[in-house]
Amino acid sequence: METYNLAVATKKLYESGLKLFTARNLQELLGVNKRDTAFAVIRRFLKNGLLVRIERDKYSFTGVKVHDFLLANFLYPPSYI
Questions:
Q1: CA 72 → CA 6, 16, 24, 25, distances in Å?
Q2: Which of 32, 42, 51, 79 has an alpha carbon 20 to 30 Å from 26's alpha carbon atom?
Q3: Which helix (H) or strand (E) holds 9?
Q4: Which residues in the chain land under pLDDT 70?
């Protein structure tokens, strides 16, 4: 299994500017080859309190303000509000 430094992974995510993301987004941003590795990184983020699980396979940073319309469109695309 590949290993990732949590601080480096966090920095890449914050620099991406994404407030909401999926495991697939995380996998692409970090350049992870295996989906299992992406979920291992997500588990580490959740355990350390850096991420909040919104829905299955949908996450946000802890303490980040997300507009309701952005969240609605993320959960049920395409949504008309």
A1: 29, 21, 19, 18
A2: 79
A3: helix 6-16
A4: 1-4, 79, 81
Distance CA 51, CA 60 (A): 6
Q: Alpha-carbon distance 81 to 64, whole Å?
A: 21
pLDDT in tens, 55-74: 998 999 888 888 888 888 88
Cis previous bond, 78, omega within 30: yes
- Its pTM stands at 0.78
Q: Is 41 exposed, middle or buried (0-12, 13-18, 19+ CB in 10 A)?
A: buried
